[in-house]
Amino acid sequence: MKTSILVLCLCCFSISSFAQRSPIPGLPAVDYQDAGFNSDSIDALIPIMDDFNQLDFRGMVVIKDNNILMEWYYNSHTRSDINDIRSAGKSITSLLLGVAIKEGLVQNLDQDVYSFFSKEKYPSMHEDYKQIKIRDLLDMSSGLDADADDWRTPGNAGQWMGKDEWVEYLLGIPLAKKPGEQWVYADINAALIGAIIEETSGMSLNDFAKENVFAPLGIKKYYWYTNAANQTVAAGTLFLSTVDFAKLGVLVANEGKWGDNQIVPADYIETLLARKVFDLTEISALANAYGMFWYKTQRTYNGKKIDFLYASGNGGNYLVVVPQENMVIALTSTAYGTGYGHRRAQAIVHKLLNALE
Description:
Strand order of the largest sheet: 1-3-2-14-13-12-11-10-9
Number of domains: 2
Distance between the termini: 16 Å
Shape: globular
Number of strands: 14
Oligomer: single chain
């Protein structure tokens, strides 16, 4: 199916969806048949996606071997529209930590959190932070008294995210468990990684990302909430276009490189891909494991085992990276607070991976 036929087909199914394949620097467009996809499987996917009754699905971008294969938008949205990717922003914060290591701001993942902050500047900093390593934060196993599913815990985001200054508050949260032993999903972990980058760089995470990652990747239009104290919410509130979201996945698939520019150290990406600390098979429909603010999965498609990792945000915002196929899938949606947003995204991912020949 040629591009013109694809666009016509999409328009026949829904006037609110369309394909956009104008060039992007570093990411030329090619037909998906030429990249190893089964045409019949993709053709069958088109009407399924156009039959969505919900009006909150925004876009899908598929990139393989640094070529854009599919760039589809729905419900009047376009390439230039930005979307809150919610907790998928945590995975971007993990990439920014890799940049901080490259810049010498952080030495390694075994440094304790306490060592990055001055007791004079943060007098309420708890001594428990001497026990927490950076890797504990990245693996959601800090042991801090914080739980995204329990608003009563003092480290729950509802207790601090609305403050004009929150680092002082966060550094006063005590341990509830021994670090490194249990996976408990909590925004405080990503917030502290962001605070470490801000403390060592002297910049907001927003500005650090712009200078070191977003600008080199040509990401010009975005928003990342930053409070009155110039502290950025590293746990979420990052707004990106679907195609710019996908670019960050390309950075992972290319071992930290964008073109000839090594943006994130290759050994950091290697660790990010390999680290699978906690088994999530009993609590997740898609993930098998977790590590470095990324979910890790292995599934069998058409008789072939495929390992992939993904960033996940409320509402069905997914960034999937399939290293062995050099493939990235970015999905954006505003189905916040619903279960079907995630189910819809996972169904699309499965169908795309099943379409690989």
